[in-house]
Model the fold of this input.
Amino acid sequence: MVFVPDQVAEDAELRETLKAGFLSIMIEAGVLVDAEVPFDRKLVVSSSFALKAAEGNGIKIVDGSIRLILNVLTTPSRVISGSAAMLSELVAKAEDTLVRILAQVNRGEASLEEATFPNAQTFVRLAMSDGERSGEDYLGYKDRATVALRLSDIFLDARKKSLEQQERITKLLCLLIVATP
Done:
């Protein structure tokens, strides 16, 4: 997936050139090209559409394009060229969105603090399946060790942020109590 500025994404000639080049490389490498989302829609993605997906705006469990972008941003990937900072920002937003989605799916809660994921294994299992749907019929995560490890890392990072935030709130409350006569 190539994230590009909006004006570049609108250039039909560039899109076709990228599509032909990537398709050739993928076929040569034996990479499966599925039809879930048309290849040209999942290859070149405008930065505004990527941001929409990372924030979860308009996402539905089986909404192809947006779900696919969220999936790409929360699974192992490599930056080949471009802005690593922009990608890092998108990844961080996508990770927060995934935690929020799974918290809502798990308990109808809006945050990790409110949801009860006893461990990373439960979080990963819920990311891969809701018990009835899995893979492309759900959030699109494949049952692979590298994906499970990445999802575990997302859970652990979210849990760490949550604990740090709770600690800051506790310290502020203690200061307020001490400062109040």
About this structure: The chain has eight helices and two strands. Helices lie at 6-9, 12-29, 39-43, 47-54, 64-73, 84-107, 120-128, 145-179. The beta strands are 2-4, 44-46.
